[in-house]
Amino acid sequence: MVIGELGLDGEVRPVRGTLAISLLARERRVRGLMVPAINASEASVVEGVKVVPVRDLREAADVIEGKILPQAVSFNGRNGHHSPENIPDFSEVKGQEAVKRALEIAAAGNHNVLMIGPPGSGKSMLAKRIPGILPKMSLEESFETTRIHSVAGLVKPDESLVKRRPFRSPHHTISDIGLIGGSANPNPGEVSLAHNGVLFLDELPEFRRSALEVLRQPLEDGQVTISRAAGSLTFPARFMFVGAMNPSPRGAVEARGPGKAAKKYLSRISGPLLDRIDLHLEVPALKHEDLLSAEPGETSGTIRSRVEKARVLQENRFGRGTGLFNNAQMGPKELRKFVPMNGEAKGLLSHAMTDLGLSARALDRILKVARTIADLAESEAVHLDHLAEAIQYRTLDRQLWG
């Protein structure tokens, strides 16, 4: 099999999707794969395929005619390695211990998060450090992520495999197609580029309403289907969603409660979208003593070790072949099985549903988060304190902000 783009000067130029083509070559038992030299590292990730790099048309012809013996490229496992020093660390964040705890819970169960707080409270800083507390990517996850980034042309020549969880943070002016994917020849959008990583939307109410609404399918199904006249394509889109917003258009929390302008600002986010977000977090303004404190916070590595333990518990609970990898993916059947409730728990949830006006979907989110809190505590049973902590993360249901 031969792939590449031919220039008028005979140069063989790089192409997108090399990893996916290499996987296809192995599936069809092709003897060898001739690729542009720049794409060789990416194509060599797939075992069982002899990858032959060429720089120009003359070299390709000589290989085919047998005039030169091609030197196959083998995969170097260090390719695509990202040093931990390049990842922002949670120890750099001053204060906000309650928010850090909530983000640890979110990472442990892969729950979606919305942070609400005034400018300068550290919402963006916290969000950028979430990939550092997520479990390290498995080889299968690296393959999935690299295939998507390869199709989008985002794999660098010196990186054959993406090993660092993606962190995508599009601007609020992004179009629906840019967010979800599409165009005449459908390309993956930001939701797919964030697969196995984090999709961060800062200033959430500033995004187009139509763009936010298209998030509902990937948040629910973990994939997105793009239909065009020539056919339809389905891209994976299983990511951790993190949103951030100010409590009002002016940014500050109003002393006498939210006014009309603040309520209108918050109403830009629909109820069905909020229902799909597991944790609503209040991020207060930082205190002076926290900013001036020289005491370092807990490192991302320490937090990640607890997250990984909780994820192992979840994987063992669900078992292989179920398609479930974390608590956020549980459906009604799994909730009934793994989050059994006694009379006290049902009473607490009944009061919460009455007082907060919770929807059925919001109730399911509470149960999933409570299961994750129990996993972090290494508790087989979900206790009342786990449920109570999960309920407190439904800020917007309590109508504190509108």
Give me the secondary-structure topology.
Layout: E1 5-6, E2 12-13, H1 18-27, E3 32-36, H2 40-43, E4 50-54, H3 57-65, H4 97-109, E5 113-116, H5 123-128, H6 139-151, E6 167-168, H7 176-180, E7 181-182, E8 187-188, H8 190-193, E9 198-201, H9 209-213, H10 216-221, E10 223-228, E11 231-236, E12 240-245, H11 260-266, H12 271-275, E13 279-282, H13 288-292, H14 300-318, H15 332-338, H16 343-356, H17 360-376, H18 384-391
Parallel strand pairs: 3-4, 5-12, 5-13, 6-9, 9-12
Antiparallel strand pairs: 1-2, 7-8, 10-11
Report on the structure:
The protein is α/β, with parallel strands linked by helices. The protein is 39% helix and 12% strand. The protein has a five-stranded parallel beta sheet. Helix 4 packs across helix 17, helix 16 packs parallel to helix 18 and helix 17 packs across helix 18. The protein is elongated, with a radius of gyration of 24 Å.
Q: What is this structure, in a nutshell?
A:
With 402 residues, the chain is an alpha/beta fold. It has 18 helices and 13 strands.
Structural shape? elongated
Largest sheet: 5 strands, parallel
Radius of gyration computed on alpha carbons: 24 Å
The proportion of residues in beta strands is 5-15%
Keywords:
single chain; 402 residues; alpha/beta; Rossmann fold; 3 domains; five-stranded parallel sheet; elongated
